[in-house]
Amino acid sequence: MFKIDALGQACPLPVIETKKALREHEVVETLVDNEIATQNLKKMVEQLGYIYQMDQDAPNHYTVVISKGNADLTEEAPEVVEPVATTDDYIVVVDTNVMGRGSDELGKNLLKGFIYSLTEQDVLPEKVIFYNGGVQLVVAESDSLEDLAGLAEQGVEIYACGACLNFYDLTPAVGEITNMYRIVEMLRQAPRIVKP
Fold it and tell me: Which of 118, 131, 143, 177 reaches 20 to 30 Å from 111, CA-CA?
């Protein structure tokens, strides 16, 4: 059994590290310090169709064991979760430099985590389109520039609205400049659109 100590790691790192380990190991044990992390791991298991077991060892200490199904976890019958059917083609649109409403500081961290999580997906988006305040993420000063450049290197098309760049007086460091007509075309033709 491969073991991961994800205590103190912020979302989505426990899920990402566990998913990576499952590529090479049949059974992975992940230690986390909050219930949300256990729920996120369970959702990953639902997508993959693996076997999930969780034990709370202390108030802030959980042990999650995930098996591909080829190994026994305990004497009790483990919970087998059916995989969720998905289609692979999608694009991502980002229209702000924060994710969600409330704290802008938290929103910036969430959006940075979202873009990093895109880089760790088994299926990458076809395109990522930035408009309005979202264009602030494609500039040289962006905390997400390295992740976006990595996506571009892997063939993901990155687009930024030219009128939006002009409005904010910005120059993109990654991706192509586009216009609203082309953005509408891409959105209209997309099989699925993901918006953080």
Answer: 177
